[in-house]
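REVIEWER CHECKLIST
Item 1: Sequence provided? yes
Item 2: Single chain? yes
Item 3: Sequence as submitted:
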Amino acid sequence: MNNWRCRGAACITALSVLLAAGAASEQTLAADDTFNPFGFDLEGSLGEGKHSRYVAPLTNPIFNETPHITTEARAFYFYHALPNDFVTGGGDVNLAALQLRVAITDRLGFIATKDGYADFDFDEVLPDESGFANVALGFKYALISRPEDETILTAGLRYEIPINDLETGGIELQGDGDGFLNPFLTGSTVYGDFGLQASVGANVALDADEDTSILHYSLHGDYELFEGFFPLVELNGFTAIDNGKRTTGALADLDGVDVLNFGSEDRDTTVTAGGGFRYRFDDNIQLGLGAETPITDKDDTIFDYRVYVDLVLSM
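Item 4: Structure as written out by the authors:
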């Protein structure tokens, strides 16, 4: 298992280097040339004559997928505070991750959107833990793409590979079964300076006894206050559609929302609200900063609040 993780990390690193090299190579080409290795259209749905307004969502980074077909590397970090009423009396989680997306055509893209390294610091009861998050990858396809009014609708499918590298107190923290299938639908449009995006999907456990299947849904709104600066607000929801049977007792009605899955037998719906901003330095670089907290009862979740920062480098 350790060797597998090393090989997986090496693959991610290698692909990151290839993307960076591709971006550098593109800048050295003449203005009328296009960099298309393997015949890929790396600009995807963006670029001259295509969509031009791309503001990536910030919160719920694992499930709230952009509908745009892009070639990019998105590095993000979040600090996640656990509620004081949680069985551990509080604590926190630090997660650093790198998402990769590769446009194959202007409508078809490859995505690798869940990975990273997590560090758990519990105040009491459970021992601290750190390790690699599960890896999720797949493809998405733009069903509707209308650059003339910046409207795009995309469907996708991801598979989450159960690395099972996070465990504390005998509890597998991120799924203990055969992984998950995640079909989703995401779309966006623009009204003047206001951008709207929505997504919905299901993270379906392939072993229903071990893991909980959830419905996830997100809404994003942004406004270009001045050139390149986009304040934004986002809502995210997570509802169990098939509870697992792995975690009972004191943790039975609690579970994670994205990174973690306890397989709890009676988890409740969690809805969060977030806000922040994006700043687009140019067409290829975006910086995001924001925070998120539940607006449903915090007694029903292990989510107190999160703080996010990310950097998106796209072609």
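Item 5: Key structural point noted by reviewer: The longest helix spans residues 2-28.
Item 6: Recommendation: ____
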